[in-house]
Amino acid sequence: MIYLKRQLNKLITMNKSSRRPLLLKRASVGGRLA
After folding, report:
1. CA distance 13 to 8
2. Rounded to two decimals, what is the model's pTM?
3. C-alpha–C-alpha distance, residues 32 and 13, integer Å
4. Please, which domain of life does this record's source organism belong to (predicted)?
5. Which of 11, 12, 16, 27 is most exposed by smallest CB count within 10 Å?
């Protein structure tokens, strides 16, 4: 959980302009792994 949260924060910080697509992709990957 903590690792995924850190990854999300990194993505948001690095790509604030396009964070929605990244978050959606990350959520899908996280759901598959979980």
Report:
1. 9
2. 0.34
3. 24
4. Bacteria
5. 16
Question: Which one-letter DSSP state was computed for residue 6?
Answer: H
Distances in Å between the alpha carbon of 14 and those of 3, 9, 31, 33? Answer: 17, 8, 22, 23
> 5 is written with which tokens?
């949260």
Residue pLDDT, tens place only, 3-26: 888 888 887 776 665 556 666 676
The first and second tokens of residue 6, run together, are 């850190």
Size (the chain), residues: 34
